[in-house]
Design a protein that fits this description.
Blueprint: H1 15-34, H2 142-157, H3 162-167, E1 171-179, E2 185-191, H4 195-206, E3 215-216, E4 219-220, E5 223-231
Antiparallel strand pairs: 1-2, 1-5, 3-4
Domain TonB C-terminal: 145-234
Protein name: Energy transducer TonB
Transmembrane segments: 16-34
């Protein structure tokens, strides 16, 4: 038995039309979903009722600028009472210092000024009258005699310090002393390589005898004299 087919019942005849209608419907739904907006429900109550009243808060007041008080008015001047001076004041009489011809002029005697002796030191090499060593009073050349006597005195009193010998210390000690105005020996100074040698040189010079002081222009003066003392081990 053959099925009967209605030629008007063709399903594929309007398929493209249905497709366009469905696509348009889908686009409309998508657009509506994208443009959909939701709003919160509006409050019907008065917002001003929920605002706290802040008038009770303490509002800090602006500090007032303190201006210094005006200066006090000047005090009224005291009333000065004028008192009459009943006491008599003696006038000071200034006498003239000029002398009259009638007054006698007293002559002042001349005041003698004592000469102060200067403490002069004259080197041994240039002094006019050299100090005289005991035993050189009658020598023709007192300067050469002085130096010879000095060498003899050093040789007679020379003694090498034992501690310096043990240590092997030797050298020359330069000695400077002053023959005072009374002929004594003073202001002794030494300079050498060892204190023991300096002490021995001091001992030798201190044993010098008192001399006749040197003179410059007939007056006794100080005379500095220097001499080396050599310490040499044999």
């Amino acid at each position: 038995m053959e099925p009967k087919k209605n030629p008007k019942a063709d399903v594929g005849r309007n398929s493209s039309l249905y497709f366009v209608i469905g696509l348009a419907a889908v686009l409309a739904l998508v657009y509506g979903a994208m443009e959909w907006k939701k709003y919160d429900k509006a409050n019907d109550y008065d917002i001003s009722m929920n605002v706290e009243d802040q008038l009770d808060e303490e509002v800090p007041m602006t500090e007032q600028i303190k201006t210094p008080p005006p200066p006090p008015p000047p005090a009224a001047p005291e009333v000065i009472e004028v008192v009459e001076d009943e006491e008599e004041v003696e006038e000071t009489v200034i006498e003239s210092t000029e002398t009259s011809q009638e007054e006698e002029v007293i002559e002042i005697e001349e005041v003698e000024v004592e000469e102060v002796e200067e403490d002069i030191s004259v080197p041994f090499a240039v002094i006019e009258d050299v100090p005289v060593f005991p035993g050189c009073e009658n020598a023709a050349n007192k300067k050469d005699c002085f130096q010879e006597k000095m060498q003899d005195h050093i040789r007679k009193n020379f003694r090498y310090p034992e501690i310096a010998q043990e240590m092997g210390v030797q050298g020359r000690v330069s000695v400077i002393f002053v023959i005072q105005k009374d002929g004594s020996i003073g202001d002794i100074r030494m300079r050498g390589p060892d204190k023991n040698l300096e002490a021995e040189a001091l001992r030798i010079i201190q044993k010098l005898p008192k001399m006749t002081p040197g003179k410059q222009r007939g007056r006794a003066v100080k005379v500095p004299f220097s001499i080396p003392i050599t310490f040499k081990l044999q």
